[in-house]
Design a protein that fits this description.
This protein has 88 residues and is mainly alpha-helical. It contains 3 helices and no strands. The model has no long low-confidence stretch (mean pLDDT 76).
């Protein structure tokens, strides 16, 4: 966050936090029929990136892409698993 404050100011940090909230809400809505533990597992990389952002530059570096791909993969994997379960 310190790097974001330096580059974008407090308004940028507020916008970034709103964006994080929207992403978490979107993931939670996508997994609305899943168990709470499953939601936590999927959101864990994103929460990790958010919590380490004061000491690391994950949010503004290229490593955030890896975190987002991990979350997208887990969401799609859960969706495919549920579809296979419903077919049988």
């Amino acid at each position: 966050m310190a790097m974001i404050i330096g580059e974008l100011g407090f308004l940028g940090v507020i916008c970034m936090l709103i964006l994080f909230g929207l992403v978490i809400a979107g993931i939670s809505m996508h997994l609305k029929n899943e168990k709470p533990f499953t939601k936590v597992i999927v959101l864990l990389p994103f929460i990790y990136a958010l919590l380490t952002s004061p000491v690391d530059t994950v949010m503004v570096s290229k490593s955030i892409i890896i975190v987002m791909f991990a979350i997208l993969y887990m969401c799609l994997y859960i969706k495919k698993t549920n579809e296979k379960r419903e077919e049988t």
